[in-house]
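Dear Dr. H.,

I hope your travels went smoothly. While you were away I took the liberty of generating a structure for the chain from your last submission, since the lab meeting agenda had it listed for discussion. I wanted you to have the full record in hand beforehand rather than looking at slides cold. The sequence, exactly as received, is reproduced here:
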Amino acid sequence: MKEAMNYVDKNLESSIRTLKDLCSIPSVSAQNEGIEESVSLITQIMENAGINSRILRINNANPLIYGEYIPEFYKKTIIFYNHYDVQPADPLELWESPPFEPKVRDGKLFARGVADNKGNIIARIKAVESILKTRGELPVAVKFIFEGEEEVGGVSLPKYVDKYEELFKADMGVWESGDKHETERPTIKLGYKGIAYYDVLVRGPNKDVHSGRAGLIPNPIWRLIVFLNSLRDKNGGILIEEFYDDMDQIQKEDMELLEKIPFDDEMILKKYGLKEFEGKSRGTDAIKSLYLKPTCNIDGIYGGYEGASSKTIVPSEAHAKLDFRLLPGQKPENLLENLNRHIEKYGFSDVELNYQYGYEAAKTEASSFATEIITRATRKTYGLEPLIYPLSIGSSPMYNFINKLNIPTISVGVEYWGSLVHASNENIRLEDFKLGIKNIINIIDELSNYSSEYN
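The corresponding predicted structure, in token form, is as follows:
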């Protein structure tokens, strides 16, 4: 693959321009912006690279881009998943340059979506292009799936998988992203947590009431607080009955992986301006809490008067937004049933629970041949031993590949520890972008050389 690697170096500026073009489109799925424009540009980029592309559509869903290159002779197939939708750019005033006008500063490219997930889209396409332009053929078959709803829960992806299952078949998969650790070692993620997201509403009087009547009129905010406090204990343990019953047992191999990951308690506490972690955990217990424990989190709570000065009222409504991060084995539908039983058992009939979206966790085993392939390739690309995480702290619908299609799938990418994903001034380093392209080339090469020795 030496000629392909040289092609990456010689054409890096062209690849960066292509990435800038894609990042210039505000493909914010939550606001239904820039979807068709992104689809059109990505299919054009794929065709220019020599990859056949199709636009798949189902009712009430953003388009899914499918791409493939099937060589005349091959033994293995690899499938790449990414998403072309991005988070909203708000608050705009915190950006040093406009979020959809990509700018290079200090060796970094700044733009909304450059890290999550457009840098990886272009890196993977350009990796295949580099091989095709220098060798004329691929040693394995490649497939691409680019969806447009990941940032709003990926609710349509399972429908696409069900309808076009034959197109998705592969021997292994590479998921959307990955980054460099603060130590500059590349990371590999074997899976993602699941998620369940809810809106909570508690109604009080049919209109706001003078707070002089607070001794008579129930305040829905107090009631909401009581409900939220019933969901977990002071250390973060979740109190919903049967919540942990279907969670898979934590494997010894997963703990061994975590123990190899550098974790500086004091540095992290200082970074976030904290005196202690949730549950006062430290060291191994803290990193276990981060990666191998489910969570119940309040994303926002609001109601009543929030303006300047004072306004003395008993508000008519109180709202909260909740997310649960789930571990392998836990199902969003089971959690919903358990939550409804919790509401009934403890007399919260006045609490309205609105389930927004959710999906289960998924992970590839550390002993999988796919893990070995990705590890070998990443070690070769970066010249460093990669850090392997059994799960990401975040959620992504990887279960569609692993749990539904039985495709061992692993996540690597072009980000780094300071990429500010979902935040203002999102960025990637151009050197990491180049190495990310080369890593995909090495992954394809390792898969083409696969043999029983991996097992």
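Two observations you may find useful: The chain has 14 helices and 21 strands. The chain has two domains: 2-190+364-454, 196-250+292-359.

With kind regards,
E. W.
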